[in-house]
Amino acid sequence: MGSGNGDSGVDGGSRKDILGKCPQQSILNVLRVACSEALKQKDFAAQVQAIKQKFYNRDFDGIFLEPANLPVYTAQYVPRRALCYYELFGHPELQRILRSQPQILCLGAGSGSEMLGITAACCQLVAATAPITIHSQDYADWSSTLGLLESAIRYKWQIDEQQIKYEFSISNLLEATPELEEQIARSGLVTAMFVFNELFADKANAINFVKSMVKCMKQGSYFLLVDSAGSFSSVKVGGSSYMAYMFFDSLRRAFEPVITEDSRWFRHMPGLCYPLPIENMRYFVRLYRKL
What we know:
It holds the Pfam family Methyltransf_34. The chain has helices spanning 23-34, 36-40, 44-56, 60-64, 69-88, 92-99, 113-122, 143-157, 178-185, 196-199, 203-216, 244-249; strands at residues 103-107, 132-138, 164-170, 189-193, 222-228, 234-237, 240-243, 255-266, 281-290. With 291 residues, it is of the alpha/beta class.
């Protein structure tokens, strides 16, 4: 099932060719290496079905606090999101932010979608003089899964720590700690991708976290909000339902909108090689600059 897309080797002056002729396939090749053991599990399909049922019941702890679920989740759900994030970070505004070599804090990002998609987008840039730092935060211990993904990235794409650094921390966004607030304060870009739907299951603490985040973010830094464009991302307040971005759009004293798209499709290219089907996805995107 190899692709032969030439996704190894780096030109010293540029990293544009590192993904080869088919960047989407190159991203999937990294995942196939990182998730090889999970994909071989005989009960993989049954585990995926159990995870889907827990999603339907909004039993997020039942999914993410069970270590055996984590590599299966990454193999199943990360492909389409990593491909989507790679495409999204090709947006000129986000490419400009990446060129500034920021510290990036990815909230709820333990599964590795942000780590992989953003790294792939960085490969389009000329070699940096200082490393970009991608810090993945989550409330479950994804360190083993992220370690496999980092090893695959560095092996397939020949990216070293002088180009991109990876960090991971465990914390609960609903119980913000001084360490998390400090991480937010020093980040040039904070991302929350497919996170706030889960957080708003506890509305009071979710709003407290948003207040803390707004307080800690430095002026001129950026906040990227991405989630499903469907009703699954709506938040009920009183008798009405609102999309999560409406809440952030209302914070006009804190955030200046830079990118606003209520509905955007990611459609993968045909003919990709991966052991599992890859679905297209519709999502909304907001990029805000902190005032």
